[in-house]
Design a protein that fits this description.
5-stranded parallel beta sheet
């Protein structure tokens, strides 16, 4: 298994190399040369596997420079009930990512019972273990630079806190996360964790991360790595739960299975696209956006038009307040036939004109055949969905999951089973839950006093050079 850059200007890499590199030298994102294929016999054999063993089977197909036994050992150490025991009391934590049926034809894949109560733990805990393993073997250190709209930061910091050879520099948009999300990150006192609140929106944070990664000399000197979903390790770990969800749904008698994903940065739903390219028979991928609906606009119109910071709304599903989806480049690379020159031409058009349009191009038919559909959910939609789920069966969902459920019901076809991916526990967004239901969501043990704990962070401007100076002084 070798990896290529979406922009075609980087030599082939192996998994452990790209794990530490994050962004490619040419500014592109890494993808495998080809996707490993999984057939019906393998799917049948995997049906009864525990999550850790299923993860090991899938990851081994992408990590051939790590011994299969090593991959299995890491998965079995990470995917345990003790690590994923912070969620709802009625979930079966012996099964990571259990499937909860809401009604005939609609199920929720529960992904938020990890240490930070968000789906990103599922990949980030594994990524932390992989980082530590590879760095120890090489006798190296790594400075992780990341950006978060809410959940990535805390998931990364909880996965990497105290790990040997690792420092974390995490950018977040100042004042644009929920109080719970801020406290979850900023209350960490570990010496290797550095939180930087940027005066701007998430896209500004993401642009700063990309600018630092684009300085090859600085990146090499200070050993800059990534935990955002630009890191392929994040994506491949997320592929696993698509297999888990599909296997569970079909075991329960589902026929055509589609998956609905609340998405801002496109990483989570990209993992579904990868699973589908591997041969997992997902019928459709349904993408749910909030009011920052750049991706919905693209899948409806074939025009990709990212929005400026001033046009990016602060919403009640803040982890999706994103107008430049960094992982979208990987999907477009596949869409244009894995042609790096064609990808670069579209990105040049995006840079000069602020958008690109696939209408009238040879790529439009590939887009229409991709199996994607999309829709938008608003604040009023979120409140209605949260309230309806609570009144129907006592289940409280977080605002992002509510976006997904609203779109799943809107787009579901007759005879189709839709799995909606849960994104976080509602305790992280109490204000919206109270507005919708009149009651505060329950908090898992250990989080009762979270917002009152001392917080450690620094507020900075959108200044890339100042960010480099900050890292250099502490690396």
């Amino acid at each position: 298994m070798r990896y290529v850059s979406t922009r075609g200007g980087t030599a082939l890499r192996r998994f452990t190399d790209i794990l530490l590199e994050g962004l490619a030298e040419d500014g592109g994102l890494f993808l495998p040369e080809s996707y490993p294929q999984v057939g019906s016999a393998e799917l049948a054999a995997w049906r009864q596997l525990p999550y850790a063993d299923l993860a090991a089977e899938i990851l081994a197909r992408f990590t051939d420079d790590l011994l299969r036994a090593e991959v299995a050992s890491i998965c079995r150490a990470i995917y345990t009930a003790s690590v994923y025991g912070n969620g709802r009391a009625d979930s079966d934590f012996a099964q990571i990512a259990p499937l909860r049926w809401l009604e005939p034809g609609l199920a929720l894949l529960e992904l938020s019972n990890g240490p930070t109560l968000a789906f990103k733990d599922t990949a980030m805990q594994l990524l932390g273990a992989l980082f530590e393993r590879v760095l120890a073997e090489r006798g190296a250190t790594l400075n992780i630079l990341g950006a978060t709209a809410g959940d990535t930061g805390s998931a990364a910091e909880y996965a990497l806190r105290g790990r040997a050879g690792l420092r974390v520099f995490m950018l977040s948009p100042h004042g644009r996360m929920s109080a719970f999300q801020r406290a979850q990150m900023f209350s960490l006192q570990d010496a290797n964790i550095h939180n930087l609140a940027v005066r701007g929106v998430f896209d500004d944070c993401q642009d700063m991360v990309k600018a630092v990664n684009g300085d090859a000399a600085f990146k090499a000197r200070y050993r800059i790595g990534a935990v955002n979903s630009i890191n392929w390790g994040r994506i491949v770990a997320q592929v696993v739960y698509y297999f888990k969800g599909w296997l569970a749904a079909t075991a329960a008698g589902a026929g055509r299975v589609s998956v609905c994903v609340p998405s801002g940065n496109f990483g989570n739903i990209l993992a579904g696209w990868i699973a589908k390219q591997m041969g997992l028979p997902i019928h459709r991928l349904l993408l749910a956006t909030n009011e920052n609906n750049v991706l919905d606009e693209f899948f409806r119109s074939a025009r990709y038009r990212p929005r400026a910071a001033a046009e990016t709304y602060a919403t009640s599903s803040p982890s999706m307040d994103i107008s430049k989806a960094s992982n979208f480049e990987r999907f477009v690379y596949d869409l244009v036939g894995r042609d790096g020159a064609a990808l670069r031409a579209l990105w040049d058009e995006l840079s000069t004109q602020g958008s690109f349009d696939l209408n009238g191009t040879p790529y439009l038919s590939a887009l229409r055949a991709s199996g994607f559909a999309s829709a938008t959910s608003t604040h009023a939609d979120r409140l209605r969905t949260i309230r309806a789920e609570y009144e129907r069966g006592g289940l409280i969902v977080d605002p992002h999951t509510a976006d997904g459920l609203k779109v799943a019901r809107e787009l579901r076809q007759p005879g189709e089973t839709v799995i909606c991916l849960e994104t976080a526990l509602p305790a992280k967004f109490a204000e919206t839950i109270v507005e919708a239901t009149g009651r505060a969501p329950e908090r898992p043990a250990g989080y009762a006093d979270l917002e009152s704990r001392p917080q450690r962070f620094e507020v900075i401007d959108t200044d890339v050079e100042a960010l480099k100076d900050y890292i250099a002084a502490r690396a």
